[in-house]
Specification:
By secondary structure, the chain is mainly beta. It has one domain: Metal Binding Protein, Guanine Nucleotide Exchange Factor, Chain A (Beta Complex), CATH 2.170.150. Helix content is about 10%, strand content about 35%. It has 3 helices and 8 strands, in the order H-E-E-E-E-E-E-H-E-E-H. Strands 4-5-6-7-3-2-1-8 form an 8-stranded antiparallel β-sheet, with no helix packed on it. A hairpin with a 7-residue loop joins strand 4 and strand 5. The longest helix is centred in the C-terminal third of the chain and has 8 residues. The radius of gyration is 16 Å and the shape is globular. Bound molecules: zinc ion (ZN) (2 copies). The site of one zinc ion has 9 residues, from helix 2. Pfam families: YPEH2ZP. This is Protein FAM72A. One of its GO terms (cellular component) is cytosol. InterPro entries: YPEH2ZP. Belongs to the FAM72 family.
Length: about 160
C-alpha cells in the first residue's frame, strides 16, 4: 500500500467515504470510476486517490518497477491512456509492513494534482455513492462499457 494512511479506528467511517470518478487533469480522459481519497502515511500533507481496480484499458503501466524511500513496496508508474501523462502509480509488490498494517486493499494510486475528482452518484442519480454501496468491481456497470468490445469478440 506504499505507506497510505490506514487508521483502523476510522474503519466504520471508511464505508461512509464518497466514491469519486477521476478524470485526467491534462486531457480530461476518464481514468477511474471508483476512487477513494487517501493520505500518504509518510507525508500527511500529500493527498492521493486510490482504487481497487481501474477501468480496463484506461491506464498504461510505464517503465520498470522501483522502490521509494517510504517503504519496501515495489511500484510502477501509471500514465493516462488519453495523453500519456503520469497520473499515479501501481503497487506491484506490496511490502511486509504495508501488508501487516490495516489497509483498504487498494493498489492503484492517483496523484491528487494529476486528476480532477467528481463525486460519483448512485443508481438513482441523486445521492452521492459511498463505499458501503459500491458494487464489486467485476459487477460495476461503470466498468462495463470498456469491456464491451472484448465481450462481443468472445461471443462471435
Ligand atoms: Zn510498503
Ligand atoms: Zn490524460
Amino acid at each position: 500500500m506504499s505507506g497510505l494512511h490506514q487508521d483502523c479506528h476510522m474503519h466504520p467511517s471508511f464505508k461512509t467515504k464518497p466514491v469519486y470518478e477521476l478524470n485526467c487533469s491534462y486531457c480530461d480522459h476518464l481514468v477511474c470510476v471508483r476512487g477513494m481519497r487517501a493520505i500518504l502515511l509518510a507525508d500527511k500533507t500529500v493527498e492521493l486517490y486510490s482504487t481497487d481496480q481501474p477501468p480496463p484499458g484506461m491506464l498504461l503501466l510505464v517503465g520498470p518497477d522501483y522502490q521509494t524511500n517510504n517503504c519496501q513496496c515495489k511500484i510502477q508508474d501509471t500514465a493516462c491512456c488519453g495523453c500519456g501523462c503520469m497520473v499515479g502509480y501501481h503497487v506491484t509488490v506490496p511490502c511486509h509492513s504495508c501488508l501487516r498494517s490495516c489497509n483498504n486493499g487498494h493498489f492503484w494510486m492517483y496523484h491528487s494534482n494529476s486528476v480532477r475528482p467528481s463525486e460519483r452518484l448512485d443508481s438513482t442519480g441523486k445521492e452521492i455513492m459511498v463505499w458501503a454501496s459500491v458494487p464489486p468491481s467485476s459487477n460495476d456497470e461503470k466498468m462495463v462499457p470498456y469491456k464491451l468490445p472484448l465481450y462481443i469478440e468472445c461471443c462471435r
